[in-house]
Amino acid sequence: MFFVTLLGVMSVSHEVIASAGRKTDIFERFKKDLPELPLASQEKFLELSKSVTKKPYGEDVLAYSMRIDKDWTEGVDRTSTNFILSEKLFLELSSYYGPPTISGRSRIVIEALNLEGNLTAEQWYIKYILEGGYTTEGFVAHSPNKVESLMVIMERDYSYYLRTLVMINGSKVIMVKYYIPAIFFQEQAVMQAMILNSFKLTYPVQRQYQEMLQYRFLDIAEFKYPAQWKIYARPVRSVDRLNAAVLNVRDGADNSSGKAVSAATEGKLDVTVISSAIKNTLIEEIAEYKKTIEADGMLIGKRIPEDYEFTYEKNIDFAITEVYKGMDTFENMSEYEFWFTVMVGGNYYYFMMLLTPSRNEMFGTWAENTENYKLMVANFKPMVGAFLERD
What we know:
Elements (H helix, E strand, L loop, with lengths): L1 H7 L2 H9 L6 H5 L11 H7 E6 L9 E6 L3 E2 L16 E7 L9 E8 L6 H12 L3 E8 L2 E10 L2 E12 L2 E10 L3 H13 L2 E2 L10 E6 L3 E6 L3 E4 L7 E13 L6 E16 L6 H14 L2 E6 L14 E11 L5 E12 L2 E10 L5 H16 L2 E2 L9
Antiparallel strand pairs: 1-2, 2-10, 3-4, 4-5, 5-9, 6-7, 7-8, 8-9, 11-12, 12-20, 13-14, 14-15, 15-19, 16-17, 17-18, 18-19
Helix pairs in contact: 1-7
């Protein structure tokens, strides 16, 4: 494709980026198949387990049903309506306990917190295990809102196999954790897997995204961007070429003095609208766009071969999005990624470019930037002025 040809064939940049070192992709580090187990029949499972149905704190969004070992006991019943969910600390919803042993106790703990950022369950969980310093034995993404993992952890000098199910419901993260003392893993692993598989949300709620604001290029096009981001637009001098930049800016504070410190830009989105009536072709415009990026000290490397799910507005006639490795020569060769989208609709071309720290450098920031980018691309819409013939 022409887009690949113009942005992908840059041998000098490839060599420079390659010489900076090759890192294992972060998804390759954590995503592994879960161990295959000889699961029991459904009849046997029902015989060995009992059903539990709960509505913690009286909240529909937290309600669930599952089966647990019939000999297990329940922990504290969380039925009070006086609760607060935060974005940092988990709130326990329920707990269930197996018989105590000298090697530790099997248990299930169900927790919840508010989802921070427009992340998928996979992205949220990878960020969680990175911050906790965990290593996974198995990790699969069942859907954008559901992931499951297996890992070995230490607690009070005991080793446990921890199988975890993470689900996003509305704006909540629900985490189900099933601990087994390592010495009993072989005999309890099948029950562990089948019990987690039995977990169901009673009232599934459609995914809720954080607030988005709207920006318009006159009557030509509009898009939405996160309310926490900052937008900067150039003065309109011609309807032939319009531009705006949207920055993911993190404000800091000096904890010792309480004084504000300079903000850090953690991502930049550039949106350009170009009339098809200008003398340059679309291919020539993309080439000029690439030169502008290079002039700012950014090196564009190889395309990252991965499937991305993008949605485009119905009035877009043509659209393509591709992702490339990048490097900033002005910041100690810091690693970045370029996400490029070219769209054509009406009498205009539309370029959207995201510059973000790479997934291997700052995963949490990368995840926030790229998920918001997908939302912004999906919400980009040509307006009536894009279809008018102008003198």
